[in-house]
Here is the input.
Amino acid sequence: MKILIVEDESKTGNYLKQGLVEAGFVVDLTRNGEDGLHCALTEAYALVILDVMLPKLDGWKVLQGIRNAGKDMPVLFLTARDQVEDRVHGLELGADDYLVKPFAFSELLARVRSLLRRGSKSKESEFMQVADLELDLMRRRVTRSGKRIDLTAKEFALLELLLRRKGEVLPRSLIASQVWDMNFDSDTNVIEVAVRRLRSKVDEGFDRKLIRTVRGMGYVLEDSACD
Here is the structure.
């Protein structure tokens, strides 16, 4: 699942991003309201974490822009403005939750997961499946033929990306940007190693192989995949 953070305080923004990435989410971070609104309107996010006091465009206007565009993803305000009228104003504009700084990351993560559950429109949005492989997005669990598969946060994010784009060959550059938030470096084998480890957990011991390497192009997950 992909989350957008709009936060101009560098320390807070980096802290949030690192924590959410470690929890298994794909995260974009922007530093001002204009960039935040642009990202929210042009990318598909499961949730937005939004500060109020932002350069160029404040959080109130960003939220208004999101809702006026018909976007219904959950929005969590994270701000030092702790007056009751501020909270009421944010909720009236269409925010789904309001958390005051300073905050405990464990509470923020619990609220994020709660909002994502509430924002799920159907079982299909909480679970992803191909063949006998199933991802429980809320509980961050993976099973195949009913057998639990333990993945790291990065492995889960990689598998989720492959599942969301199943049948499509994903180049290493795309995987690098979406899962590792980095530009692809042809001299590193981090992606090859990660895919190899994921394949050993997901495909090893099963007759039907789901993850396939397309030589010179990238990787694809599909029901008919075979080595």
Notes: The chain has two domains: 2-119, 124-221. Residues 2-119 form a domain with the Rossmann fold fold (CATH 3.40.50.2300).
